Amino acid sequence: MAAFARWLVRTLPAAAWTVVVALLPWWMGLSLVLLSVLGAVLFDRRIVHYAALCRRALRSGLPGLLFAVQRALGGDLIAWGAALLGALVGFSLVVLMESLLDHRVRRTAQAKVSPEWSELAMAPVGPPAHIIELARAQWREAPGDEERMRFESTGEGRGRYVFDQGQVIDKASPRYCFSPGGRWFAADLPGGRGEVLWDSHSGHTHRLMGWQLSGWEGEQPWLARGSNGVPTALHEVLGQGRRR
After folding, report:
1. Greatest CA separation found in the chain?
2. pLDDT of 22-67, one tens digit each?
3. Is the entire prediction scored with pTM above 0.70?
4. How far is CA 166 from the centre of its chain?
5. Element at 6 (helix H, strand E)
């Protein structure tokens, strides 16, 4: 019963519209049909509800217009033939128009979706890669020609470095180097047991047993366990985790 009621709700307005157009003069019916075509085109993709109403008005009004035309032609056999021919042409044009409108809607939807999917397909997976290129450490032997510090030997291949700022680094070997920009100072611990690093900006000193200086990334030291070890940033060596 509910399905029959829904069918009546859909069918009765369409049938009433067909009868109205059929009873009107053919030129008035033609004007209404053309207005329905114009509304279906203009409201398409703008006001979907109005566009659907115009399409239904066009499909329901076209039979009424053809009946009005054959009535205006006299209602004889020739008039009915002309009406049937008009029905064939008219409904073919309606189907063509709706097909073009639906095709335009699909192309618009694809145009909106495709770039998004293509961007997702081309987007890099995971965080961007960062290639580490280490500058080799330029080692020197103390005493060197340095204006900002001097080396005082205490014997047995060790000594102390005294800097102009007042910083003193003792129990280090005469083998030393600076970072490319001069921020960091590095020296071997006696017997090749590790490195001592001093940050001239913060004043922090680190004695790293078992680590060897691999090189510099900018002004940051990288160290490795032994000559064949994997270079590791200082903050990871110190167990501080990756800095943001």
Report:
1. 131
2. 777 877 877 777 777 777 777 666 666 666 777 777 777 777 777 7
3. no
4. 53
5. helix 2-23
